[in-house]
Specification:
GO terms for molecular function: RNA binding. It comes from Nocardioides aurantiacus. This is ANTAR domain-containing protein. Keywords: Coiled coil. InterPro entries: ANTAR, CheY-like_superfamily, WH-like_DNA-bd_sf. It is a single chain. The chain is mostly helical. It has one domain. About 70% of the residues lie in helices and about 0% in strands. Helix 2 packs across helix 4. The longest helix has about 45 residues. It is elongated. The termini are far apart. The relative contact order is 0.09.
Length: about 120
């Protein structure tokens, strides 16, 4: 059999160490990328959940819910992601402490658009 790994000349000790360090650097970079992707997914999940809450609480369509979320963020001087995360955390906390149907909706801010 023609095994490409066996066909190579043996590595010297210095070359082996260099190869291993390169592989470890690659692993570290991949771990960082995985962490960045997990963070991005968490943000996206929060924004999607907050949008869904607005749709449920106020009967908005998806575009309107995103517009309202962005407007609240602008009014608060915050990012839509941080407002969404706050909404999700408030609802999760309310649900954990009081599972009475309809009670969680108090965690969703009252409807207010810029200039109102």
């Amino acid at each position: 059999m023609n095994d490409p790994l066996r066909a190579r000349a043996p590595l010297t000790e210095d070359a082996s160490v260099t190869t291993i360090r390169g592989l470890l650097d690659d692993v570290v970079e991949l771990e960082r990328e995985v962490a960045r992707l997990r963070d991005a997914l968490a943000v996206l999940t929060s924004v999607e959940r907050a949008t869904g809450m607005l749709m449920l609480a106020y009967g908005y369509g998806p575009d309107r819910a995103v517009t309202v979320l962005r407007a609240w963020a602008t009014d608060l001087g915050a990012s839509p992601q941080s407002v969404a995360q706050s909404m999700v955390e408030a609802v999760d906390t309310a649900v954990e402490t009081d599972a009475t149907p309809g009670r969680w909706s108090t965690a969703v801010p009252a409807q207010r658009l810029p200039g109102q």
